[in-house]
Amino acid sequence: MKNKEVKILLSAPRGFCAGVERAIEIVEKSIQKYGKPVYVRHEIVHNKFVVDDLKKKGAVFVEELEEIKDKSRPVIFSAHGVPKKITEDAKNYNMVYVDATCPLVSKVHREAENLNKAGYHIILIGHENHPEVIGTMGQLPAGSIDLIQNEKEAKNYNNKSNKKIAFVTQTTLSIDDTKDIIQILKNKFKDISEPQKEDICYATTNRQMAVKNIAKSCDMFFIIGSRNSSNSVRLVEVAKKSGCENSRLIHSKSEIPYDEIQNSNIIGISSGASAPEILVDNFINNLRNRFTIKIDEVEMIKENIVFKIPKKLN
Description:
By secondary structure, this protein is of the alpha/beta class. It folds into 3 domains: 110 residues, 4-hydroxy-3-methylbut-2-enyl diphosphate reductase, catalytic domain (Cobalt-precorrin-4 Transmethylase, domain 1, 3-Layer(aba) Sandwich); 84 residues, 3-Layer(aba) Sandwich (Rossmann fold); 97 residues, 4-hydroxy-3-methylbut-2-enyl diphosphate reductase, catalytic domain (Cobalt-precorrin-4 Transmethylase, domain 1, 3-Layer(aba) Sandwich), CATH 3.40.1010. The protein has a 5-stranded parallel sheet with strand order 10-9-11-1-12, with helices on both faces. It has a 4-stranded parallel sheet with strand order 3-2-4-5. A 3-stranded parallel sheet has the order 7-6-8, sandwiched between helices. Helices cover 39% and strands 19% of the residues.
């Protein structure tokens, strides 16, 4: 019996963004420079495969600096950014630290700080407890920044300070969702100050546009990424909203739904910004074992952005 033929629309760009590539390179270069072990506070990026690979090379992952017994060893801050207090703690411990915060997250940090200095009360649009949100809120004195997660919270928000207000956003959100929240805030506060340049990062935007572009043509859509990766989870939502209801996340514990794929003619595939391409290859190879595969890579935009690593590692 001939294998069922399945067409794959492979979304591009997908996978690693410049901030993730830089963060991983920072860990690898730190291990080369300082030897093993090098500590990393929080998962460097939200992907189990990447974290496990770096563990093999000599990285030890911790959630807090207090867990590091040998404070003479260097520590790296993850791509999501950290509250100011963490940097101050590292200095107080006399630790060597390397900051792998994505430059686009750092941009939001600076923006929030400058607005605060200019006398604004700040709204951060983002998801509670996400490390990037904790990092951004931790740039400012307590009480000077409020988190809004959805349209309902935006509608109910009252500016309790008597200051002018401004908003910034988490970099890995869905553009469509933030657009609606921002509109509510603008209707409510006519003179709210907004970022001069969109905070949502280029890679998040590009990956979402590429998924939108092909989702309506697909019977199923798979996003390769981790459950705690905000941008991966958003991509699943974008695929669903853009016309492919049967869209799902494929993470390290996922079973591939071969039966459903058997009933599909066209499937879409993309991957989150912290998912290495090998995971996409592995997924496609698993499908090849069962089906006759035809791949059509659909590229929306070429990405050629590279972020430099800190000078101390060169």
